[in-house]
Amino acid sequence: MATQVASKASYVDAYRSMREGALYLIIAFLLVSVGTIAVLPSLFPALSIRPLGLEAPLVSFVVLAILVIIGGIVGLVGLWGKFVPGVRRLAELSPEFETSSTLIRVGLLWGIIVMMIGAVLLLVIVGIFVMIAAAILMILGYVGLIMLMFKLHDVEKSGLYLAAGILFIIGIFVPIASFIAWILLYAALGESIRKAGAAPTTPTAPAPVSPS
Description:
The protein is mainly alpha-helical. It is about 80% helix and about 0% strand.
């Protein structure tokens, strides 16, 4: 019984760490999205503005770089400090998650780091190639994330994981789908925490036998 309780507590810790990481990544996605939208006016001269006498494209790209860097930092905190350790803990409990854990750590974690470097270099031509490299790493991480979703669906039998996995696939081409997937994952992990944290049932003691 003690082993069962310890196992349940370990899964709760893993899921809780992953859930907190998912929340950080949702916030990071919002910051990067706002930065991307800030660039759009520079693509349409009629909508361009020139605050402080500066060219709108320059201002937009500076805003983009700043928000991408901030979003990257938030994402790194969520990945490095929460999500990746949670998935690694899950892989320690169930080796079937090992491949997903490795791909997520290499792809998503280093993808965000390279993306931040690319954001700093965005005003020079090399920044474009760095961002492409970041995109390739992110896709690799997404493959691991998708595998994780389908395996969690098999283990937890929750449709939210399946829906999140499908949306992560779509998210490779349509980024907003990934944002929705992270929200679904956040909700699904909440369900898993409640399930794993349920008190184990205690066997009923047999009734004492009356002496004949």
